[in-house]
Specification:
The complex is a heterodimer.
Chain A lengths: L3 E10 L2 E11 L4 E5 L6 H9 L6 E6 L2 E2 L10 E4 L10 H11 L4 H15 L14 H14 L4 E5 L7 H18 L2 E6 L2 H7 L2 E6 L2 E6 L1 H6 L4 H6 L6 E7 L6 E3 L2 E4 L2 H9 L4 E6 L4 E4 L10 E13 L3 E8 L2 E8 H7 L6 E7 L3 E4 L9
Parallel strand pairs in A: 3-8, 3-9, 6-7, 7-8
Antiparallel strand pairs in A: 1-2, 1-4, 4-5, 9-10, 11-12, 11-14, 12-13, 14-20, 15-19, 16-17, 16-19, 17-18
Helix pairs in contact in A: 2-3, 2-4, 3-4
Chain B lengths: L5 E12 L2 E12 L3 E5 L6 H9 L6 E6 L2 E2 L10 E4 L11 H11 L4 H14 L15 H12 L6 E5 L7 H18 L2 E6 L2 H7 L2 E6 L2 E6 L1 H6 L4 H7 L5 E7 L6 E3 L5 E3 L1 H10 L3 E6 L5 E3 L7 E13 L4 E7 L2 E7 L10 E7 L4 E4 L8
Parallel strand pairs in B: 3-8, 3-9, 6-7, 7-8
Antiparallel strand pairs in B: 1-2, 1-4, 4-5, 9-10, 11-12, 11-14, 13-16, 14-20, 15-19, 16-17, 16-19, 17-18
Helix pairs in contact in B: 2-3, 2-4, 4-5
Classes of the chains: A alpha+beta, B alpha+beta.
Chain lengths: ~375, ~375
């Protein structure tokens, strides 16, 4: 049972600042994902937790015990990389190895290996040579071996990237099942947003050595703390359009166009000292219509625009709408798209419900509403 | 329609290397401003075809006709065609100007020409104001425009782009695709783009031409390719080989019906009607992920229903892609929420007949 605390971790390699004042708390028993583009510092952070790398500054705690200076071998963590490094022998021997070095008796080893193999679903393959296994089963062996070390913490560094999509889905489910049974702390580093969103109890989204947000999948997707998180998550990423508050009637405007007449939002922004802001919304939360009767829905912002580009993706369409020099994307199912009979250069109105929009400070790109 | 309306026609191009036919009677025609996406797996002959059009390789048979004139014997530089191999990744340490100019410098164009051409293209793409900036100091949108400007720097009527979006980060790729499509209509240039990624071809192409093993197996607008793939291998390719499929067979007496995914099933009479109508002993029903339902139970399925096992899902923020398995067969369903089941539990898979593509069991070709 381990919770992990990272306090003000910085790491520099020469003149490169790989991590800048990273503080995180990983709860006991949670599957915690660290997500970010390549070069964001996520692997360095994992290696610092493992003890394979020393932070330039800051402390690492396992259950309030400062382990910053404790070497990797005695930190009681098991690191699983791309699950490939198996020994060319039987499944049994591969799993038994860490137990042997822990000094277990032969009978105990046999019992424990069987237990673990059952748990990861390779109980029937114990006597097979690992060359006889498919990739997914090999990865299960690697996972079983990591478990045989009986670590307090599991660390995963993009272990599934080499797999085909179906095997990857199955392995994710296996990992999730395992976590529910073991109830042990797991940290999982990935650049793949679907992997993080699918697997994690909570996600830390990183960029340029900084943690931009920590939250559940729902939080980071729907309420991004920064424009980076909004842009990085989702395909397409979040739309951002610059808006201004009219100080007289408190309406919200894009350029010369009023998009929201109700004063409620404008007042909130002015109270925050913001006359201008970035409006953020997701492409799938936009309702597109060709004509709207002259009513002003107090629950939706309404943006007039012109369709510039239509992209077909098979299961859906993405329509790019231009308004006052800004652009945003709208994701439509094929049936919605067909119903609207949209074409490039068509005039449309985009409706987004007020509870589906965010506002960001233009100066620091942080969410304010 | 007169032939001279086409800016480029390719007629019955064939090419053999070391006794192996790499291109087999390839024909197509494009109008000015159209974008043709040549879609096919690596090794299907895409690059060879582009090189033949550019004049870098000589075909064994067939004609390349540009603006109504056969150009088979013209050298590359007289064809009005520009072949771009590199991906749209920029040289980070070079300025925007240098990035755009690089293909022209490689061709040893004089300074005056390069200045004029870079000015022209950057005006068109609205990046004149950043010509002096280093590429790694650009915003995402600026970077994309510069990349496209470089790809189109050489003056040509027809641009041939070989895998322009490969090796790019997924986010950049997504944005670049949109930008590319937008600018294409602005520039009015004819583009032939080779890709092995179905999303690129569907999203970008005015027309898509599928090239498998050196032969054109289908050509048409993206929607036609997607909703009426001529045979099942095309549908599989478009889904990265995770197509929802079930085969139904009927015995020679036309009575007993069986399915290749086991006995626990229900079949809408519609499919049996089709089977009898087309006079085949077996047909394969297929659907894409958005045309398949996976749930704990599907009460009324007007299609084909299979019992499977829930093996996992992908959460994409806006939707879930739910995976089920029956034996070796995998089914995917795009849903707004997760079914109320745990991993390994029984689920029902339904392919409604309104969403199903029907293929001949014998030949794999599309029936309806």
């Amino acid at each position: 049972m381990v919770s992990i605390k990272l306090v003000d971790i910085s790491k520099t390699f020469g003149s490169v600042e790989a991590l800048k004042d990273v503080s995180l708390e990983i709860r006991d028993g949670e599957l915690f994902a660290i997500l970010g583009p390549s070069g964001c510092g996520k692997t360095t952070l994992l290696r610092i937790v493992a003890g394979l790398e020393k932070p330039t500054k800051g402390r690492v705690y396992f259950d309030d015990i400062d382990v910053t200076n404790i070497p990797a071998e005695i930190r009681d963590v098991s690191m699983v990389f791309q699950f490939y490094a198996l020994y060319p022998t039987t499944v049994f021997n591969n799993i038994a190895l860490p137990l042997k070095s822990k000094g277990y008796s032969r009978i105990d080893i046999e019992k424990r290996v069987k237990e673990i193999a059952e748990l990861v679903g390779i109980g029937k393959a114990l006597n097979l040579h690992i060359d006889k296994l498919n990739i997914a089963d090999k990865q299960k062996v690697a996972l079983a071996r990591a478990m045989a070390k009986e670590p307090q913490v599991y660390l995963f560094d993009e272990p599934l990237t080499i797999l085909d999509p179906v095997t990857r889905v199955i392995m994710r489910s296996e990992l999730k099942k395992l976590q529910h049974r073991l109830k042990q702390t797991m940290i999982y580093v990935t650049h793949d947003q679907i992997e993080a969103l699918t697997l994690a109890d909570r996600i830390a989204v990183m960029n340029f050595g900084v943690v931009e947000q920590v939250g559940t999948s729902w939080d980071v997707y729907n309420l991004p703390n920064t424009t980076f998180v909004g842009w990085f998550l989702g395909e397409p990423g979040m739309n951002f359009v610059e808006i201004a508050v009219d100080k007289d009637d408190l309406s919200i405007n894009i350029g010369s166009k009023k998009i929201f007449r109700d004063p409620s939002l404008g007042k909130k922004l002015l109270d925050l000292g913001l006359e201008k802001a970035l409006l953020g919304f997701r492409a799938e939360n936009v309702v597109l219509v060709k004509e709207v009767p002259g009513v002003h829905d107090p629950n939706s912002i309404v943006i007039d625009g012109i369709i510039r580009v239509i992209e077909f993706f098979g299961t859906h369409y993405v329509v790019n709408v231009e308004t006052e020099g800004s652009e945003f994307k709208v994701k439509l199912s094929v049936s919605e798209f067909n119903k609207l009979m949209l074409g490039e250069n068509d005039k449309v109105k985009a409706l987004v419900r007020v509870d589906k929009v965010c506002f960001f400070n233009l100066d620091n790109n942080r969410r304010v509403l | 329609m007169g032939k001279d309306e086409y800016i480029i026609q390719v007629e019955k191009i064939a090419k053999t290397y070391n006794g192996r036919r790499v291109l087999n009677d390839i024909s197509f025609a494009l109008r000015r401003g159209e974008l043709l996406a040549i879609l096919g797996p690596p090794g299907s002959g895409k690059t060879t075809l582009l090189k033949i059009i550019a004049g870098l390789i000589k075909q064994d048979a067939g004609d390349v006709i540009i603006n109504g004139r056969i150009v088979n014997d013209l050298p590359p530089y007289e064809r009005g065609v520009s072949l771009v191999f590199e991906t749209l990744a920029l040289y980070p340490n070079m300025s925007v100007y240098e990035n755009i100019a690089s293909p022209l410098i490689a061709e040893k164009k004089d300074k005056e020409y390069i200045d004029r051409r870079v000015g022209e293209i950057s005006r068109l793409l609205k990046i004149e104001h950043i010509l002096g900036r280093k590429a790694d100091k650009l915003s995402g949108g600026e970077r994309q425009r510069v990349a496209i400007a470089r790809a189109l720097a050489k003056e040509a009527e027809i641009y041939l782009l070989d895998e322009p979006l490969s090796n790019l980060d997924a986010k950049i790729r997504y944005a670049l695709r949109t930008e590319f499509k937008k600018l294409k209509s602005l520039l009015g240039k004819t583009i032939i783009l080779a890709t092995s990624d179905p999303s690129d071809a569907l999203a970008l192409g005015d027309k898509v031409m599928l090239l498998f093993n050196g032969a054109v197996i289908q050509e048409g607008p993206p929607i036609d390719i997607y909703y009426a793939p001529r045979n099942i291998s095309i549908a599989r390719y478009l889904t990265g080989n995770i197509l929802n499929e079930v085969s139904i067979s009927i015995d020679s007496y036309g009575k007993s019906v069986s399915m290749d995914v086991g006995q626990e099933f229900s079949i809408d009479p519609y499919f049996l009607k089709v089977l009898r109508e087309v006079g085949e002993t077996s047909i394969t029903l297929a659907s894409y992920a958005d045309g398949c339902i996976v749930d704990k139970s599907v009460e009324s399925c007007s299609g084909i229903k299979v019992a499977g096992e829930f093996i996992g899902y992908e959460y994409r923020g806006s939707e879930y892609l739910v995976y089920a398995r029956k034996g070796e067969r995998v089914f995917r369903s795009l849903r707004a929420s997760l079914p109320n089941v745990t991993f390994g539990e029984r689920v029902e898979v339904c392919i409604p007949h309104t969403n199903a593509l029907l293929f001949s069991g014998k030949t794999g070709s599309l029936i309806r």
